[in-house]
Each structure stands twice: as C-alpha cells, then as structure tokens.
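Exercise: predict the fold of this chain.
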Amino acid sequence: MTHTHMDLLPATRRALDHRLAVTQAEGRAPSVVAAVVREGRVVWSGGRGELPPGADPAGVQYRVGSITKSLTAVQVLRLRDEGLLDLGDPVGRHVATPHGGTATVAQLLGHTAGLAAEARGPWWERTDGALRPELADIFGERPQRHPAGRRFHYSNPGYALLGALIETLRGAPWAEVLRAEVLAPLGMTRTGPLPSAPHATGWAVHPFADVRQPEPAVDLGRLAAAGQLWSTTGDLAAFAAFLLDGDDRVLGQAALAELQTPAVAPEPADWDTGYGLGVQVARRQGRLLVGHGGSLPGFVASVWVSPADRVGAVALANATSGVATAALTAGLIDLVATNEPLPPEPWRPAREVDPELVALTGVWHWGSAPCALRLHDGRVLSLGPLGGGGRRSRFLPAADGTWTGTDGYYAGETLRVARRADGSVDHIDVGSFVFTREPYEPGADVPGGSDPEGWR
C-alpha cells in the first residue's frame, strides 16, 4: 500500500504544522524546515521562520553535520560488499596513518576504536581544513583514549580515517565517490560538500537576548567524511526512505541491517541509545528509531525513521544550539504513527506449497518445553515457545537444505532436520539443541538419552 500527501487527515497535518511552529518559536531559531516520509513518500513538509524568498522549504540547503557519517558508512559497506575490504581489517592495511591504524574498519564505523572524540585544536569545526592537509594533522597528543573494542567513544577523527580509506580504494575524492555511488542513485541532487542557492545562513543566537551573529561555514578538509555535507529535507527524506527499505543500487537490506545493529552494548546510563555501523539507534516513546543527528556552528539537523511504523522524519535548523530537532523528528513520527497507523499487511497464503515442510510444522519440544515451528512464504521458518517470552527466531532457507537464524537467540545459527534411515524425521537440531515431537521422545536421538523407565 502506498500513500500520497492527501492520505494524511487535515487534523494530522495541522498537528504537524503546529509542532513545527512550536519548535521554531521555543527554540528561537531563524528558521526550521521539516518533512515526514511514510512508505517511501513525503506525506508532509513545511518550514517556519526566515526562508529565501520564493523558495520551496524542501529545497533549501542546510548544513547537516554528522548525518554525513551515515552516508560515509554506506560507502564503506559498499566496498565490503565488493570484496575490497573486510570489516575486520585493520584500517592501516589499506591507509597509511600515524595513528589508529590497528583499529578495524568495523570499530571505526561503530566508534569503538577508542580514538579521541575531536581533532587537534584550534576548534576544528570553526577552522579551515586547509590547516590540516594530512591525516597526521588531525590527531593531538593523545590520539588513543580507550582500548580498541572495549566501549563506545564517539570519534570524528575515526571517520576522517574512513574517508581516507574510501579515497584510497576508489582512487577518487570522497565527495566524488559519494555523489556517484550514493547520492545520484537515491536522487539526492541537492546534497553536496558545498552550499548552492537557495541555502540558509548559519547563525548563533544569543541565549539571553533576541540577537544573533553569523557563524563561519568552513571547509572541514580531512574531516569532511565526518560532517561536511549540506542537504535539504527533500533529499534527506529520500535518505530516510532508504534507511527503511534499502536500495539494491546502493545497499541491500542485509547490509542495511548491519548498519542498524548496535556495535556494542550502550552505556548503562544511556540504555535507551546505541550506535550501529554509522547510524544511531534510540528508543523514544516506546519506538525503536534509527537515524542520526548532526550539528556544526550555525546548524542542527536530525533524520530518524521508525521501521515498525514505516515512518521517517527530517528536521533542519540554522541555529548553533537550542533547537530540539531530534525531539521534533521523534514527535513528528509519533504524531503520524499514533494518529494514522498503517494497517497490517493483509494475510495471504504462501505462493509455494511443500507438503514436507507443511508436515514439519506444529509443536516440537526442547526437553520438556513446548515450542511451535511455523512455515512462512519463501520457505522461511520461525520457532519459538508456545507460551510467552523466550528464544524466538526466524530462519531463512539455505542452498544446502538447512536454515539460518536471522534474529533473536539463534541469529546466525543453523536449523537442520535430522532424519532416520527410512527418511522419517527424527528431530530438529538448532545450534546443537534437539527438538523432538514428544518431550524427551523415546527412541529419538536426544543427547544423553531418555530415562528407560519413562515418565513417572
């Protein structure tokens, strides 16, 4: 099912307009623009405050800061999918760098390499990148702040290394590769490393007076892959749709799922947030959201999607601080998902029927615990307890006649149907655990066997 702008009820559109207006007024932002995506389409967009005369708010460029990192991560996963690198490779295998070379590509993507958070001074976000022409120039006296792989520690220099990795393996500047491989296929024609009219001016708003001053918009140089880009709500809406569905021209669903899986356990104090391989993961208002925030002097930005609701939102503002774009995007998603939830997909019978697999479904027992094996379209299986919580997983068919877990406890584990000499099913083996039709079924190949006196 697809939706157009008119699918949203007038009351929902008014609520979205009001939420945007409140954010701009209370955040004291010169301007805020936003958009909502549902099922791959923009269903609402708007702008408040000072906008270029006659410009469509959806086409006005703002600087998006660290949202750039998500696009850089997509480039790196493309290199992996082409076999040019492995995520476990030390980045120093591909890039000559004085620091951070032993960190793996995956650790850099997930900010677990232990590198310093910021580049060496002066304040790099307000300093022309031409002052740091080499990778060595971005590292300070203590480039390594934590042991690699032990904890999440956000690192802008880490993404500078990833930008250098892309340039080395592609033999072209990072921005050119990004445009050709990611931006152009997704239709993000108003996204790039430099602003083009119409674009917003970045402002710092005084915290206690209704006055402002312009912020510098410098070229980040070697740190471009960490935060250089300018974009629009129209383009980032296309990126939000990509985060929901993937695009085989850029990155498929399997690699997209890797991006969105937290690299390490979140900090205990921040249990509601995590970080994947280039995207942030957060729980807001009972929803799992995936996306990224961004900021540079004069600008703040957010793009988030709720995969369960098939809804995404983008918000951009031209103020250094005080504008809650993350709260705005989460609120826009909540308004649409709560007021106009999508109906579930209609049930349809499977397109293929395999009588042997149908016969395999039903109740199986792990020891004395009853579980249900279900068959879905495409020969997909799911297994889980008949009761409440427990170990539940879906399994995709493999060419060798087995199935591989995609989620839950058995993610990556193999489900195998064990047969007797006469071809009948003896048991199901899932990662070495045996499931039988009856609890500890006599005669079945259960490790340790069944008590010869049976149940008593």
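Check your answer against the key: Residues 1-6 have pLDDT under 50 and may be disordered.
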